[in-house]
Each structure stands twice: as structure tokens, then as C-alpha cells.
Specification:
- The complex is a heterodimer.
- By secondary structure, chain A is an all-alpha fold.
- Chain A is built from 8 helices and no strands.
- In chain A, about 85% of the residues lie in helices and about 0% in strands.
- Chain A starts with a helix and ends in a 6-residue tail after the last helix.
- Chain B has one domain (about 20-175): MetI-like (MetI-like fold).
- Chain B is about 80% helix and about 0% strand.
- Chain B is flat and about 75 Å long.
- Classes of the chains: A mainly alpha, B mainly alpha.
- The interface of A and B includes residues 65, 155, 156 and 182 of A.
Amino acid sequence: MDLALRSLPFLWGGLLVTLHVSLLVVTFSLAAGVLLGVGIAYGPRWLYWPIRFYSDFFRGVPLLVLIFFVYYGLPAARINLTSFAAAVLALSAFKTAHVIEIVRGAIQSIPRGQTDAGKAIGLTFRQRFQYVVAPQAVRRFLPPWINAVVDTVKGSALVSLVGIVDLMLAIQQVIGRTYVPMPMYVLGALMYFAINYSLSLTSRRLEARFAYIRE
Amino acid sequence: MTYHFNYTYVWRHFDRLTWGLVLSLELAFVSILIGMVIGLGLAVVHTGGGRLTRGAVAAYVEFVRNVPLLLLVYLVFYGVPSVGGFAYDATTSFVATLSIYAGAYMVEVFRAGLDAVPRGLIDAGKAIGLTPWQRLLHVRLPTMLRVVLPSLSNAYISLFKDTSLASVIAVPELTYGAQWIKTNSFRVIEVWAVVTPMYLATGYALLFALRRVERRFATH
């Protein structure tokens, strides 16, 4: 117990790195995912297939393999990134694929009749998207997206395997010095749990609140 | 200067990768089976149980779902034996971890499945005089299994990808095989360029095969 308390400042540093990585990945994947997700939902064929391929590729490979591929592969291809940048890049590429699917699903869940109605009253494509589809799609998008954020925080633990001292590696390092694994793992699990569970609860609350959108 | 590709070492030790892939599939398979037993048991307990059991099941599900799998892998492999006074090998430890992990997801899947069984079917069971146990065994479970089949195949593919984490405790699955070749040959790009398609091809082959099975048992 005493040990756990004394290691807290060190773990706090790791936690900040975990949050930093997660925040960057969430931001990048949100920006790229929304753009590509709209592209896959509305884009012409030459835009659809590359995005479909991207999404299916990155969702089909284990995240750990992607991180190793980027971390070890890029330097061999003469692209030098810090391990931090490589890890964030790999996680973002992975997460973007998931955001694409969430955006696509959200947009396509809005009944066609509404778009048709928009056309019938003479709205342009932009107006239909802006005033009819997007406001509803955002409500469908938020709950699964928050779940994806939870997955990002969980997945960020894998960056410890390429030597970034996030919460996971900080825990490992404390254990490496003290040889008392169990209390430290439990403490670390509780820290991850505190972040993720509050996010999960938010997701569930939003889902209940937005349940009024019907077909 | 350009990088010179050389796959000789990767092909020479390709059996490490094929056996690794087989082990990955086995790990995922055993884990989902145990996970299904956990999930089914807890889902039934949850639907029929009191507040205390419901709370306990919810605590298990929420804990496992909100903690990184990597941390669970370490916790079970390094943490539990340190306080339990016993030891197990890495493979057993990983299967235990992945089963506990799968179990938490399966509870949710089966709970939703049990909820999806039409009320009328259960009432019909009552009407012809089936006991609660018979209703569960002959009405609720068979109907539910068909409903949850797509979720089960998705979970299996997801678990197959998660088996890559077993490499951190030196279980000789596919990712570990890749790491081994990489460490011994420094053929970094080559080995990942071979292993990534192996994961992709296996994952999508499983997906197509399982979708066919689903169509056979489809409810509609």
C-alpha cells in the first residue's frame, strides 16, 4: 500500500503520456475518419474503393502488428520517426479505419426518405447534408465513437512495447524495481478503469438520450 | 542508399510462422469456447438473478471491458502467481486471460440474445407445460444461439487478432514467430510484409467462411 502511494507521482507521469497519446490519436483519427467516412458514403467509385480498401486493411491487422510494422519498418525504409511519432502514427491509422465505419454507418442509418424529401423541396446537396443528414447522423455517431475513444485509451497501452513510458510501462518499471507485481497491476487497472468507465458511461447516457431518432 | 530486400531467412523459418498461425487460431478457439461457457452461465444468472448477482456480473463485465488487454495479460501471468503461490506456463496463462476477456464480451452478447427471444415463444413453452429448465434448454437457448451467431463469429475474428498480444509473454504464436525471425535476422520489413498478409488473409477467410455458416442458420 505504502509502495503504491510512493509510486503514484511516477505513475502520474505515465498517465499523462497515455492521455497525451490518446488525445493525439483521437484528434487525428476523428479528422481523417470523418473526411474519409463522408467520402465513402457519398463519394464516386474512384474514391469509394481506395477508402474501402484502407478501412478493411487496417481493421484486419492486429494493432500490435501495425505498431511494430511502423516502428521497425519505417526506419528500414529510411523514414526516421521518433518512437512516439511512430506509435501515434500507427494508432491513428488504425483508429481512422474504425472512425470511417462509424461515420459511414451513422450517415447510412438516416432513412433515404429524408434525403428525398430534401431534394423534393429543392435543397442542394450541401443543404441536405448540413440541415437534414448531419444533425441526425452526429447523434448516431457519438455513442459508438466514444466507445472507439475507450478502445483508443486501451490500445494506447501497446505503445509501451516500443519503449514509450506511458502508464503501462510506468507500472512495469515500478514492478521491475520493487518486485511486487500484484498491487501495482491492480492500481494501474483501476487508473485505466477510472478513465474508460467514465467515458463508457457518457456513451451510454448519450445513447439513451438520442434514442428518440427513429426510422 | 536503398534497402535491399532479402526474404531468404523469412522463407527458411517459415514453419515458425505457419505453426504460429495455427497456435493463434487455437488460442482464439479455446478462449472463445471457455468465454462462451462463462458468458452463457453469467447471462442466465444475470437474467434470473437478484441484485447482488447482477451487480457482481456487471462489475466483472465493466472491469474487463475498460482495462487494456495487455494489462490483463501481465496481471494474470506475472501478478496472479505472485500472490497465489502457484505457477503456470505462458500459454495456459494467456488462454485464461483471453477466456476471461472473451467471457465479459460474451455475457453482453448472450444477454442481448436472451432478450431477443420472443415473449410468445416462452409463453408457448409454458402453455404446453415445460418446466423453466426445459424452457431454457429447448426454447430460449436454441433460439438465442441463432440470433447471436453473427456476434460470435465477429468475436472469434477479433480474438484471433488479439492473440498477437500473447507474444509479450513469449507464447510462440504468429507475432512471436515474426519477432523471433526479426531478432535473428534483422529482416524487419520482410518479416512484417509476410506476417501482415497472413493475418489479413486468415481473418478474411474466417469472415467469409463464418458468414456462410450464419446464412445457413439465419433466422429470417
